Amino acid sequence: MRISVLGLGYVGCVSAACLASQGHEVIGVDVNQVKVDLVNEGKAPVVEERIGELVAEAVRAGALRATRDVREAIMGSEVSLVCVGTPSEPNGSLCTTYLERVTEQIGAALAERAEQGGRHTVVFRSTMLPGTCLNLLVPILQKYVGGTAGVDFGVAVNPEFLREGTSVRDFFDPPKTVIGELDPASGDAVAALYDGLPGEVFRVPVPTAEAIKYADNAFHGLKIGFANELGAVCQALGVDSHQVMDVFLADRKLNISPAYLRPGFAFGGSCLPKDLRSLVHAARRADVSVPILSHVLPSNSDHLQRAVELVERTGKRRVGLFGLSFKPGTDDLRESPLVELAERLHGKGYDLRIHDANVSLSRLIGANREYIETRLPHLAQLLADSVDEVLEHAEVCLVGTRDPDVLSALPHGDGPVIVDLVRLPDAEARRAEPGYMGLAW
């Protein structure tokens, strides 16, 4: 394929050189004449393992050249990869100035190119927040081209997952390939670029592709921060943090796995809240600052409050709650977020009815009974014996369980507002219904 790569920093240079080495005809574009000259001389404008030899070989073979002229690049290519920078503004917001500028130039060139015929696909590889492509960049392209994205020209988002220092290896052995496609033809054009490379390919809506890069980088930062904070606490307590983490990392069932990484309701139970509090307290006693660990429980509380706010937003007063124990299939109410939710709603004067098939006040004993009598002493008045009793009472139903009896009884369309705390199996279909509200989806 004939490909133009706009922006010859790390991402652009590596993408251009690697694509050229795969047999594509690539023209790189940059406003910096020094970078353009270096590429045309067969030299890489960035320092990176293997990139020098790849650039040299590609230029020598006539598969790679560079220019400052966006028009020239667009006119001579079928696909353009936009790899310009999106730095932070002083207030932390995303700077889209370079994206907008190059998009205007691409649009102007596409308007002229349209006379030649043949479809061109614009692929944004720059990191940008969800909504940037469809709400900012596509309108710019359509304004300049005078046509419709997805019809007269293609648009896609293709985030990169290249780590500086190993970016060439990451290109040829990617953890995944993500294609945010405006239309199938746009996605096909991007998929063709990576034909033959390993790793799973995900073809998703454009905003999803934009968000995935942020999910990855936020989690990477969180992991590093977590490891460093835990290391500081371990050091203060006289423990070898690397031994701790060796055992931690060996657990592929719960720790290094998909476990706990699906958006849902707040966590609770007899272990997580208690142990987090103890660890943070130990860190404070040792004068170790642990801002990530110390904010986990406040974050959890804020997430629970989102459910309260969804109920408030309905303006209705009769509320039903399905589920009460902290984990399905148990009657353990200790530090259950659903108990806390019930307490907050009851405290705000909502007329509340609760049903959990595993919870019966007469069967609660020991610490479980003591906890509920302390946190929600009026529980006996709030518990309902059946799913139907809750549905008959409620104008708003909070669903905190996947109990089959509850799922089969939940109405569609007319009926109470459904506030989904667990992502119901039919959540995708329900999202189109006016009476459905998902907590975090």
From TrEMBL:
Ranges of residues in domain UDP-glucose/GDP-mannose dehydrogenase C-terminal: 320-427
Residues that coordinate or bind NAD(+): 10-11, 30, 35, 86, 127, 274, 334
- Write down the top EC class of this protein: oxidoreductase
| InterPro entries linked | 6-PGluconate_DH-like_C_sf (IPR008927), GDPman_DH (IPR028358), NAD(P)-bd_dom_sf (IPR036291), UDP-Glc/GDP-Man (IPR017476), UDP-Glc/GDP-Man_DH_C (IPR014027), UDP-Glc/GDP-Man_DH_C_sf (IPR036220), UDP-Glc/GDP-Man_DH_dimer (IPR014026), UDP-Glc/GDP-Man_DH_N (IPR001732)
Catalytic residues of the enzyme: 271 (nucleophile)
Recorded coiled-coil stretches: none
According to its UniProt record, the EC number is 1.1.1.132
List GO BP terms, alphabetically.
alginic acid biosynthetic process
Amino acids binding GDP-alpha-D-mannuronate? 164, 213, 217, 220, 228, 260, 262, 265, 268, 327
**Pfam families given for it?**
UDPG_MGDP_dh, UDPG_MGDP_dh_C, UDPG_MGDP_dh_N
Q: Which domain of life is it from?
A: Bacteria
> What are the protein's GO molecular function terms?
GDP-mannose 6-dehydrogenase activity; NAD binding
Alphabetical keyword list:
Alginate biosynthesis, NAD, Oxidoreductase
Known pathway: Glycan biosynthesis; alginate biosynthesis
Similarity section: Belongs to the UDP-glucose/GDP-mannose dehydrogenase family.
PANTHER family tied to this protein: GDP-MANNOSE 6-DEHYDROGENASE, UDP-GLUCOSE 6-DEHYDROGENASE TUAD
Name of protein: GDP-mannose 6-dehydrogenase
List the source organism: Streptomyces ferrugineus
Highest classification ranks of the organism: Bacteria, Bacillati, Actinomycetota, Actinomycetes, Kitasatosporales
